[in-house]
Structure formats: C-alpha cells, structure tokens
Amino acid sequence: MIDRKHVGRVFPPYKVAVEKGRLRFFAKVIGETNPVYSDEAAAKAAGYRSLPVPPTFLFSLEMDVADPLAWIRELGIALPHLLHGEQSFTYHAPVCAGDVLSFAAKIADIYEKRNSALEFVVRQTRVSNQDGEHVADLRSVIISRAIA
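Above: the chain's sequence. Below: its structure in token form.
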C-alpha cells in the first residue's frame, strides 16, 4: 500500500531552459507540421515571441531532473507495477523558446480502487516562467497495480 502520508508532499523545484533545437526536434518526432513549431518567422507572424512549445512538450521538460523516477521509488512503488494513467496540461500563457521555466510539483492525492488492486497517485506541477508568471499546470496520474 502506498502510504497516504505522502499527500501534500512537495518536491524540490527546478528550472529548465526552453531551447529552439529541442522544440524543433520534438515537433518533428510527434509529426507536427504546423510551421509555427519549427520556423521562427512563421511563429512571429502568428504572434509568438519565438517558437512556441507544442501542447505536450512540458512533459518532456518535467523529466529533466537527474532521476525523474526517484519520487516514484520513494513512494514505494515498484517500477514493474507502474502504469501511466493520465496526463493533462492547462496553459495560462504562451511558453516559447528562450523561456526559463520553474517546475514545482506536489502529490495532490493518493487513492485506491478494486480493493487496493489499483492504487492511484495524482501529481500536480505548477510551471512559472523567468518573470514569475504562472504559465501552466500539469497533472499526471500513475497507477500501481498489485501483482498476485
């Protein structure tokens, strides 16, 4: 069982710079063909300061810590039992190349279903830019399944 004492646990914040090359690569990998994600002139013509981040890009930046799975192991979840349950992104302001983002994550909830056969951990991350502006909220749900 995942100990419910972890609800409210706050993780150390960290910063990540948004780089043009990485944005272009990500857009290419996901098959994004809209030129605003790869051509700076097209991005500026569309009203952006620089290349904007594709909608799910912040997830990859959320993994830019030395050991992105450490928090899962600290909760006592065995990685072979782990399932990705859900991911959502709420944007409050555009995020573009050149921004330096601060990620502040916490455990928002832990609950179970099916008589503890499935345990759910909800993690919320607040993202702010270099000016302290709240630009996005990330929400992820992981599931630990009991192995009989």
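The longest strand covers residues 100-113.
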